[in-house]
Amino acid sequence: MTDWNSWLQERDWQPVAPDEFKALPNDEKLRRIRHSSAHVMATALRGVRPEATFAIGPATEHGFFYDVHVDSPLTPEELAAVQEGMKDVSKQRQKFERAVVPHAEAVEFMRDRGERYKLEILEKLADQTVTFYRNGDFVDLCAGPHVPDTSFCQNVKLLAASPAHWRGEQNPSLQRVSGTAWDSRDALKAYLAFVEEAKARDHRVLGQALDLFSFHPWAAGALWHPRGLVVRNELAQFWRGLMPEYGYQEIMNPVLYKPDLFHQSGHWEHYHEDMYIVRDGEGEPDWLLKPMNCPDTMLYYKTRSHSYRDLPLRIAENQVLHRNEVTGALHGLLRTRSFVQDDAHIFITNEQVQDEILQVLELVDRFYSTFGLEYVMKLSTRPEKYMGELETWNAAEAALSAALTAGGREFSVDEGDGAFYGPKIDISIQDSLGRKWQCGTIQLDFQLPQRFDLEYTAQDGTRQRPIVIHRAIFGSMERFIGVIVEHFAGAFPLWLAPVQAVVLPISDEKHLDYAREVTAKLRKAGIRTELQQYESLNYRVRQAEKQKVPYILVVGEREQEQGTAAVRRHKVKEQRVAPVDEVIAELVEKIRTRELDVHQPTMSARFQETAAATTTDNAY
Ligand SMILES: [Zn+2]
Ligand SMILES: [Zn+2]
């Protein structure tokens, strides 16, 4: 029998050279700090739960986790004890050391320790030499790399312990202990402030607090409350308002179709698991709920013949869609089973790709800048398996990239990540916390026109096939609203606010009539206004602030005599007294121009994303 302690001593342990670490780029340093923090956590956890065995402990985007097996879930008190223990380990400056170990000996060692997960990992690594890392008493099977010693892991905060699955196991048998780790105290503080802010802005919480929408386990999508629907309708109106200017026409088709439509489009073949089937009897599906607007828009195209003079033909549709998303993928408004896209399909000739994409990009800019959203674009090109002519692909990709360049836009290229039916541009918006959300997409499609045998008559009289552009800018309306609720922290610009102004009489007895008069005037001008009475003035002001109403108009003796109101903008300290007509004119103008008049406190801790470490690195 092997004495494993002396076996360990006899390994050829190599330290991590501090100079080498110092010379690394910052993101690589951070990645090492994060993964090393997982080892530090494991070291401390041993002190709290000696029975712990370990699965994988990779670095993540902002920290690390370690999936561990313990006899019972960790309590918050135990988690706090682990955090304390990590502090001690860090203070001890334990050196990280690496040793190369023959596979067979590694297996024997882990078997002796009862590390069943490490044994399974080793199975996959059969016939390789593997490496161990150690710090203090803690020894781990690990590919590294690490920081020189544990003192580099002092800006760490444990965030949670939650159930986790081991590789395809049905039931969670592990606890995922996760934390965040940084290279300075300030960076850690900034990140924790960001997490708090993001929590406070969670659209599910704000949706409830501001009475915008809610969720019910029986409903496939959000329940839209009157106030939330105002926001939604304003967005739709904004969208509709821009369509004629850019030459779009809107259609509306049903949500329910015979399966034939999706056989012809090819969606049944590739997509049927995500589609809802509706039966009127037994057996075969009788109807399908459409998961996208594309196939039925093709039916519209075929209702008459087209000539080159009709192209580009820009057809928008805003119908409700249904997709059978798995429960785990659902997340508030960000992913729902029932949703609406600001969808359009544009029919063009091969020669029109560049100009049309340029126009769509201009529209993208109009949309997002209205909300103060920055965005990044990614061009995805021909994958290995593709349909259509290589020549068409090359020309289309060149046109897309020329359009992107012509607009002076920065974009990244993802070679080979396009759909099999055409190249595409994905657009991710960046919110006020610096988080990225994929919303818009512009896709070329060579396939659908072929499947539906679409044609137009060219100038020379020949029959030609058009190309289709699918494009959505908000993406899903639900998702976009979820994103902007968080982006604005619920304090919408005036034009979007469900209630735009409240009028508060100082005294119900003396000033109610005047308050009613002011309210009526504002409403007549199209400003969504509420009159609040009964409670104390202070209370009513606080309520209006909580509801993030953009304008509060207080009226009393003086205002009544002068035909004025004391006006305060949400989040702005100063109050001013102005003639009611003047206030109305000002608000109407802001609404008309959709002014981005938000007064968000700039987040001192606005968190900048650092280079992301993937969750597969480090982990064997
Ligand atoms: Zn490691
Ligand atoms: Zn489409």
UniProtKB/TrEMBL annotation:
Its cofactor is Zn(2+). CDD domains: ThrRS_anticodon (cd00860), ThrRS_core (cd00771). Its EC number is 6.1.1.3. Residues 224-493 form the Aminoacyl-transfer RNA synthetases class-II family profile domain. One of its GO terms (biological process) is threonyl-tRNA aminoacylation. Residues 202-493 are annotated as: Catalytic. Zn(2+) binds at C294, H345, H470. Pfam families: HGTP_anticodon, tRNA-synt_2b, tRNA_SAD. One of its GO terms (molecular function) is metal ion binding. GO terms for cellular component: cytoplasm. Keywords: Aminoacyl-tRNA synthetase, ATP-binding, Cytoplasm, Ligase, Metal-binding, Nucleotide-binding, Protein biosynthesis, RNA-binding, tRNA-binding, Zinc. Its main location: cytoplasm. Binds 1 zinc ion per subunit. It catalyses: tRNA(Thr) + L-threonine + ATP = L-threonyl-tRNA(Thr) + AMP + diphosphate + H(+). It is found in: Cytoplasm. Belongs to the class-II aminoacyl-tRNA synthetase family. Homodimer. PANTHER family: THREONINE--TRNA LIGASE, CHLOROPLASTIC_MITOCHONDRIAL 2 (PTHR11451:SF44), THREONINE-TRNA LIGASE (PTHR11451). This is Threonine--tRNA ligase. It comes from Longimicrobium terrae. The gene is thrS.
